Amino acid sequence: MAESARESAQKARNASRKLQALATEERVAMLNRVADALLAKESEIMAENSMDVEEAGDKISQSLLQRLVLKPQKIQQLADGIRAIAAEEEPIRRVMSRMEVAEGLTLEKQTAPIGVLLIIFEARPDALPQIAALALRSGNGLLLKGGKEAAHSNAVLYKTIVDAIGPLGRDLIHLITSRDEIADLLKLDDVIDLVIPRGGNALVSHIQANTKIPVLGHADGICHVYIDAAADLNKAAKIVVDSKVDYPAACNAVEKVLVHESLLASGGLSKIQSALQDAGVQVHAGDRLKQLQPDTTLPAAPSARHEYSSLDLTLEVVPDMAAAIDHIHANGSGHTESIVTEDSAAADAFLRGVDSACVFHNASTRFADGFRFGLGAEVGISTSRIHARGPVGVEGLLTSKWVMRGSGQLVAKDTGVAYTHKKQRIV
Questions:
Q1: Which DSSP letter does residue 300 get?
Q2: Strands (DSSP E) found in 263-330
Q3: What whole-number distance in Å separates Cα of residue 356 and Cα of residue 31?
Q4: Scanning 92, 172, 179, 236, which has its CA 20 to 30 A from the CA of 295?
Q5: Does residue 105 sit in helix, strand or coil?
Q6: Considering the entire predicted model, what is its pTM?
Q7: First vs last Cα of the chain: how many Å apart?
Q8: Torsion angles phi and psi, residue 97, rounded to 5
Q9: What count of other Cβ atoms lies within 10 Å of the Cβ of residue 298?
Q10: Residue 212 half-sphere exposure, CB side, CA atoms within 13 Å?
Q11: What is the pLDDT of residues 63-90, one digit of tens each?
């Protein structure tokens, strides 16, 4: 008889407590075994992934298909990322602050695992080993629900990972295969501590509306590149092309390029447009660009706020940087924005003024990624303002606990102790 959603969550909770009690070296060894196992099983993983891709055919969108395909170099990158996570400083029980509350009475704030995580991801088999590795390193239990399009890939990746972990593996990490169980899992706010959805707007919105469990993630990835009047146009062209073409379906791909209006007369805008079109990008005209160039042959953008997730983007004109920032705040999703300029004062103003999870100067939006940030991997990118923001690695899966050590002190209505409240140095 299959175990219930509650039983899976409770097993994950108990296993996570056992995981936390293990020595650092034991958890590091588990991670290195997982990395080794992924490389050893690469042929089998690729074969199962090919079955998923073949069965998907034309039943799913092109952007979803891009996420589904595992390329040969991806397995090596996943293994490298897992080893990088294993090499990180011990994240659990790290002392964040220490205070002498009274003589002989000390108080520490320490890092601690969140508990049990529920990760729901659409056709993204590469997400499974990344998330599993981060949960292992941070001491969290894990419930995984992948898209049905990646069923073969998820199954072989799951087996590879839990077998490499050892006896604790199948209790610590659970792969949910029935769609019906998701509704049950979302009700378990007493045994699941955090939900992280990785998918489109519809998935994230549905989860947020149907659970009391805190939800961490983002619904949209509407990223911008602003090309300033002082931009190096050759650099700008390369950055916008990479931001879109490197992986058009990614949430950190640029969806709108904002161009300073002085570049309209100077020919800079035309240069950017041509570079994008030469790279195979379908360029759509924003409202102000159409007003300034009424004879443009570019198709109109669907709306001021639109996520294409394909080789399409919107080209728009703004009068100055302040207008660009206002436009981003009005029409963006708070994910990733970049400015291209050789004016350091303008760059600093943009970096200070834009209220997004990631803000860059003279760099592709595609850098907004846990692996590229040196986090080893990510469970996703959060646009939330509470807890973790941006690419969520090991630190984003930790909370804190207070640890007090005394020698018999009593409160006695605050007459039994002489408070000193001295902050102590952390060595």
A1: B
A2: 282-285, 312-318
A3: 32
A4: 236
A5: strand
A6: 0.87
A7: 52
A8: -155, 155
A9: 17
A10: 6
A11: 788 889 998 789 999 999 999 999 999 9
